[in-house]
Amino acid sequence: MHILKWMYPGLGFKRWMFCFAVGVLLVSLGLALIFNYKYLDAVEEEIFRAVYNLRGSYDYMATTFIGIFIFIVGSALMLIATRYVIRSLIMVLLPNKSERLVDLIYEKRRLAAGPVVTVIGGGHGLSVLLRGIKTVTGNVTAVVTVADDGGSSGRLREDLGIIPPGDLRNCLVALADTEPLMEKLFQHRFPEGKGALAGHSFGNLFIAAMTEVTGDVEQALNNSGKVLAVKGRVLPASKESVRLDAIMEDGTIVKGESQIPEAHKRIKRVKLFPENVPPVASALDAIKNADIIVLGPGSLYTSIMPNLLVNGIADAVRKSRAVKVYICNVMTQAGETDNYTAAMHAKAIIDHGGRGIIDYIIVNDTKISEEMKLHYAKEGAYPVAIDEEKIAALGLGLIKADIINETDLIRHDPDKLAAAIMNNVPFADFSAKGA
Predict the structure, then answer these.
(1) CA angle at residue 288 from 284 to 289, to 5 degrees?
(2) Four-point Cα dihedral 55, 58, 60, 62, nearest 10
(3) Degrees (nearest 5) of the Cα angle 363, 315, 223?
(4) Residue 64: CB partners within 8 Å, gap ≥ 6?
(5) Furthest-apart CA pair in the chain: how many Å?
């Protein structure tokens, strides 16, 4: 009965299936004439008789040309029928992209052949990187911090007892392949004066609701990813609610991720509370099976470090066969990395995650305008100095590249970041997969 449903009227492809069948018959007849097959005696006899009546003799060359013509007509019918059968199906499944079918197939194949990339971090920097990475591979997983306690995420965390959805939302949107309106909807933030909704992002509320419906944040993210047609996966480092604390060099302890930069003290070390937090098993698998692991870009202590402090994450990174890459921030961050050099950024990660957690560090080597330097200096931020000798002393490979887009602010450029990783990091050549 299921097969008979394909014969229902209005499906729009039965005529093309019939056309395809006629094409197959014509191709078969054409081949029979070309190679003078004997099992079509009746048809061949009529064609030979017609040629004889026209030319007064048996002309095998003329018959061969007729066979070639019939073969071409049959092949054309098959191609036309195939095109319209596929188009009929695609117009139902992808009505807005039916004309780009070949491009979609090629892109899907190319991305599927790309390297397996696992990105670890949080904040705005991680979503920027993901926008670039998704254009070179479809095998990407984002492992995202769950220590955010400010803004809409912090309020939902306190009110509903869920992990903060803000960074998870940004990563989903960054990996999305959906309509601009849907992306705009997920990023929409209700303005002040809207009562209980004031300051909340619709995407945060959506993930929170999906978590309650499914009963599991990982499943909620998978379902949200389907809504946004996400290329890849977004996973929390842990499903447990945690707090990030910082131990300052003067011995004081600052509690809460959002409060750490406000203390304006030099950070000695950060830790999670509670300390023993179980990781998400899928996140460990993504790290274990990666070809490339990327740390950052993002706030050193409040976006990258919380992931490495989750039980098993740092150990999995060190043991992974992947090439480990750290993307250093372009500017220092006031209250968090004041006067930090590139080597100091890398050393802080090594101190928290252990030796072997980084193989290469990518730094920006593009000159920053004086005007932009003055703008950032007002906020206490300065370009990160590249101290090559100290980087080498840490046993790290140094990759210098143009990775920024300097407009109103200095931001990492998604495409430049992806190119810096794919063109400079010495991992296995995956280009042959898509050939």
Answers:
(1) 120
(2) 10
(3) 85
(4) 33, 34
(5) 111
Distances (CA, A) of 192 to 157, 197, 200, 203, 208: 20, 8, 9, 17, 20
Question: Counting every residue, how long is the chain?
Answer: 435
DSSP three-state, residue 313: helix
26-40, 71-85, 260-274, 286-300: least confidently modelled range? 26-40
309 has a pLDDT exceeding 90: yes
User: Which residue type is seen at 1?
Assistant: M
Model pTM score: 0.79
Strand 397-401 with 117-121, pairing = unpaired
CB-count exposure of residue 11 (10 Å: 0-12, 13-18, 19+): middle
SS3 363: strand
- Burial degree of 288 (CB within 10 A; 0-12, 13-18, 19+): middle
To which residue do tokens 């079918």 refer? Answer: 101
Return the structure tokens found at 360.
């290469």
Cα 297 from Cα 130, distance rounded (Å)? 10
Give start and end residues of each alpha helix (H) in 94-150: 101-112, 123-133
CB 335 within 8 A of CB 377: no
pLDDT in tens, 361-393: 999 999 998 989 999 999 999 999 999 999 999
- Over residues 226-233, the mean pLDDT reads 88
Instruction: Put residue 121 in one of left, alpha, beta given phi > 0 → left and psi -120 to 50 → alpha.
Output: left
Q: State the residue for tokens 């950052």.
A: 296
